[in-house]
Specification:
The chain has about 270 residues and is an alpha+beta fold. The protein has two domains: about 5-140, 2-Layer Sandwich (Fructose-1,6-Bisphosphatase, Chain A, domain 1); about 145-265, D-Maltodextrin-Binding Protein, domain 2 (3-Layer(aba) Sandwich). Helix content is about 35%, strand content about 25%. The chain contains nine helices and 15 strands. It has helices at about 5-25, 40-60, 90, 165-175, 185-195, 210-220, 235-240, 245-255, 260-265; strands spanning about 30-35, 40, 65, 70, 80-85, 100-105, 110-115, 120-125, 130-135, 135-140, 150-155, 180, 200-205, 225, 240-245. The strands form three sheets. It has an eight-stranded mixed β-sheet with strand order 4-3-5-6-7-8-9-10, sandwiched between helices. It is globular. The chain starts with a helix and ends with a helix. The mean pLDDT is about 95. The structure holds D-MYO-inositol-1-phosphate (IPD) and calcium ion (2 copies).
């Protein structure tokens, strides 16, 4: 395993221990609302600090973009993009679907990815050019060719309703065009599931880079395609993301196309 990936794995497993400990009694945790329907617990903060401490100890000159602590040393060549707990709403309800997501971006290129599901002890990893793995076994995206028989993951707006009508129109057409849609509640794990072939594709709009950086690289290293709603490369910055194998990806784009807002249509590749 690449040395930088193994540090990230160590950090993710430690964060997983903090999350599992917190899950024993979520009622006892201090929880605050950042915004409408946007809760953060002491577990999110402690897990993020632990990840940063572990990586910083090994790589003192690296920078960080963490969901809870923001940017540190943002002009560094190496930036770690961290979501310490993706699926906080699930976690706070003891719904067992959440994860730790850590990605490394080197000079703007995603090179390392770790997604750790502490409930199942599932570790998804990828290094650019070296493939994607689940618990050390190579994973590939599913090879299904028809969207109509595909199982597709998604996430719908629940905090910011600006794009709710656009999303609902997309959702309606996707329901009719697929074998089923799932909304598990953790975008990072949703992408890991595409990489592992558990689902055939994924789409969601308006996500943050920490939700999708690691998952996006996992899908690419598992042989899949990741793009924005026009199939271009701005997915990490716009947060509008579609993922799947090449055939499913292009069929999903066709379903989404009639519903794109003018802003989504003019996204730059
Ligand atoms: C959220 C989850 C969810 C997605 C939200 C994200 P958080 O992350 O990934 O599936 O629909 O948009 O913000 O807040 O639990 O880290
Ligand atoms: Ca998240
Ligand atoms: Ca989070």
């Amino acid at each position: 395993m690449h040395p930088m990936l193994s540090i990230a794995v160590k950090a993710a497993r430690e964060a997983g221990r903090i999350i599992n400990k917190g899950s024993n009694d979520v009622g006892a945790l201090t929880v605050t609302a950042k915004n409408f329907n946007d809760f953060v617990s002491e577990v999110d903060h402690t897990a993020e600090q632990s990840i940063i401490d572990t990586i910083k100890y090994a790589y003192p000159d690296h920078g960080f973009l963490g969901e809870e602590s923001g940017d540190t040393n943002k002009d560094a060549e190496n930036i770690w993009i961290i979501d310490p707990l993706d699926g906080t709403t699930n976690f706070l309800h003891n719904f067992p679907q959440y994860c730790v997501s850590i990605a490394l971006q080197q000079k703007g290129v995603l090179t390392q990815a770790v997604i750790y599901d502490p409930v199942r002890n599932d570790l998804f990893t990828a290094t650019k050019g070296r493939g994607a793995f689940l618990n050390d076994k190579r994973i590939r995206v599913a090879n299904r060719g028809k969207l109509q028989t595909s199982l597709i993951g998604t996430g719908f707006p629940f905090r910011d309703f600006t794009h709710l009508d656009t999303y609902m129109a997309m959702f309606k057409d996707m329901i009719k065009s697929t074998a089923g849609l799932r909304r598990p509640g953790s975008a990072a794990l949703d992408l890991a599931y595409v990489a592992a072939g558990f689902t055939d594709g994924f789409f969601e709009l308006n996500l943050s880079s920490w939700d999708i950086a690691a998952g996006g690289l996992l899908v690419q290293e598992a042989g899949g395609i990741v793009g924005d709603f026009q199939g271009n490369e701005s997915w990490l910055t716009t947060g509008n993301i579609v993922a799947g194998n090449a055939k499913i990806f292009s069929q999903m784009l066709q379903v989404l196309a009639p519903h794109l807002t003018p802003a989504q249509k003019t996204q730059i590749a």
